[in-house]
Amino acid sequence: MRFNDSLLVRHLASLAPGVPAPAPADPGVAQRMAQWLNVADAITLHAAQQSVAQTPTLPKAQQGKVAAADLQQALERTRHTLRASITRREKTLDTEYPLYHQRYQDEQRRMEMSVQALREHVRQGLLAQSSPRLAQLVAMDTLLGQMLAAREQRLLAGVPSFLKTRYQQLRTQHQPAAADGPAQALVPVHPQAAWLAQFVNEFEQTLLAELDLRLQPILGLLEALAQE
Fold first, then answer.
1. Which InterPro entries does the UniProt record give (predicted)?
2. Are the CB atoms for 50 and 61 separated by under 8 Å?
3. Fewer beta carbons within 10 Å, N or C terminal of the chain?
4. Is 160:203 a contact under the CB 8 Å cutoff?
5. Helix (H, G, I), strand (E, B), or coil: what is residue 177?
6. How far apart are CA 137 and CA 142, in angstroms?
């Protein structure tokens, strides 16, 4: 999974003043992987590479070929369902950040469950093609998914805290000073203030960018199936 140049990273960088967007140059798969894996992981991956060529295909009797179009439709259904959940809005916008924090975590759990189920479905679809190359790809995708899952979860778990900083920044910038009082005094903000609507839009765009990131491995599997 490519965090450094993903839509999610570029989006978060655009919300943080003074933080430059990541360079578009691709450092190469090996260099990116070295940043994610420790020595034990590298040894495990090397051993897997040595044995993956021996990955057996499914016997003819167990095969139930799944059309590439069916897998693509499954991807589109999952994406549509998750996008609809992300972009649903209540009639009245919440004015306290903990409510957004909780909703973000709820959407992350929903994405995790749905995307993981879809990824396994696509893997099984590739295995059913009786192709040694696709079987090897599935074996590597499964191994890498297991090895990288913990770090991926830790990184994504930090996004709600980033959005809290953005929420506080917008609120402070648009909070007017009281007319009769100290210069730093603040007056209540109407719940439908423009700054809050802006934050809700950024909140949704962040979730959509995370969804895009989570779907990347599945898109890679489907691309490999199309090429095969």
1. DUF3348 (IPR021783)
2. no
3. C
4. no
5. strand
6. 9
- Write out the two tokens for 136: 């090897």
Which residue intervals of the chain are DSSP H helices? 7-15, 29-36, 39-51, 68-87, 97-127, 132-157, 159-174, 194-227
Residue bearing tokens 């570029």: 10
Q: Is the pTM of this model over 0.85?
A: no
Residue 55 belongs to a domain: yes
183 in a structural domain: no
Q: Kindly state the tokens that stand for 218.
A: 């599945």
DSSP SS3 for 48: helix
Is 72 inside any structural domain? yes
Structural contact between residues 195 and 174, judged by C-beta atoms closer than 8 angstroms: yes
b/e string for 31-46 if b means 16 or more Cβ within 10 A? ebeeeebeeebeeebe
Q: Can you give the residue range of the structural domain that contains 47?
A: 7-21+28-174+190-227
Query: How far does Cα 80 stand from its chain's mean position?
Result: 15
Q: What is the pLDDT of residues 13-71, one digit of tens each?
A: 888 765 555 555 455 545 555 555 665 665 666 566 666 555 555 554 345 577 899 99
Q: How many domains does the chain have?
A: 1
Entry field: residues in the chain? 228
